[in-house]
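Table S2 (continued). Query chain:
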Amino acid sequence: MLDRDYDRSQPTSRTNAPAALETYAAVFEEKGALDRHEAFAAEHDPHFYGLPLNESRIVIERTAWRAPQGIVAANARIVPFQAGAELTWRYKGSIDEDENEDEDEVERVEHE
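Corresponding output:
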């Protein structure tokens, strides 16, 4: 949803990006499939399109936060998906692969 006339040139990913991974995690958790979140979020598309997987990794953690009410992109204020909603998962940051060389596996989703 835009604060100006609808512009079809604006990618929908911009309106979902501020809370997409966090929303996916909540849905996967609700369905008892949190263990499948990483494959959905990071592996299926690259495999489908024949692209390499990202080398960098991220962590999202279970912590309450409120999604932004709006973001500015392409000189327009965009109301993102989940605007103002309180979410239960939050992006924590990137993992430096070099620091985790001794670990067998680094999970993107931290479980309680």
